[in-house]
Amino acid sequence: MNMLKNTLHAWSMMIVALIVGMTAASCVDETEYDDSPQGNFEALWKIMDEHYCFFDYKHTEYGLDWNEVYNKYKVRINSRMTGNQLFEVMADMLAELRDGHVNLSTSHDFARYWKWHEDFPANVSDTLLRRYLGTDYKIAAGLKYRVLDDNIGYVRYESFTDGIGEGNLDEVLMHLMTCRGLIIDIRGNGGGTLTTAERFAARFFNKPTTVGYIRHKTGTGHNDFSEMKEQRLEPSSNVRWQKRVCVLTNRKVYSAANEFVKYMKCAPKAVIVGDKTGGGAGMPFSSMLPNGWGVRFSACPMYDSNKQSTEFGIAPDHNISLTDEDFARGRDTIIEYARMILAQ
After folding, report:
1. How many other CB atoms are there within 10 angstroms of residue 12's CB atom?
2. What is the DSSP letter of 192?
3. pLDDT tens figures, 268-289
4. Which of 112, 140, 206, 211 shows the smallest number of beta carbons within 10 Å?
């Protein structure tokens, strides 16, 4: 097991302890706050206040003040409101955090914040992807792959929730080994399992590398964090790619996919092409309100190799967008730019 997995295992033990602590806190909250609109509102605000991990960062970025948010939404709460009305107010309050990892879930709805990608161009087209993949592409677990006509390998990976094993990666890379270069297209990949992202990225490193840092909450204050701990990536002991590789990104690249881009930024022969990623650099956790509604939130912040937050995304090395002219010609501008880089 490589060093990053050991690190993640150690952090998972801390996470278990944190969850146990939060569960105990939730039990206290349920006795402290009654199952009323006011009680549930207070419980939600308090859970976030004590456990959410990006308050100071987002205060710096766009002036977020969680106490002001409390005052803004508290006046909308009253004892006569319906469950749907309460849900709407609390969902609006959580949206102030601008975090795709923050959700409020009930049996009838799921509050989510999607503006991190809604206000940006898609920079990917299913129509164009079908033209490049054709119908005779190969499939290995969650990977679709083929050799393009200029002898460039192309891998499409739509979600890190679709697991890939070491054997899958061996077969894919061996099949593409004679190619001049490799394109990994993760546009629209909203994340999934962090260990899968690490397993894939390890195929592009030949020595142990610091790819980022992580911290966890040590108390209820907004600034109560542990020291930064390195995320070290060990090279895979299986087939490794030794040629150039372009990773294609857009705003819908989020969470574990965002982490994959963070790792690949450190790979010696990798280049990131496309749009800025969507971010999502907080490891999410869950708690529960007195009425049984679930709340998910970012609790452990993660950083890049320069100790900078990637919560609001990672800039590509080459910022390229799809153009209308190329689309009309059946060309994917971002893929074609990557092919040009790899052909040089």
Report:
1. 12
2. B
3. 999 999 999 999 999 999 999 9
4. 206
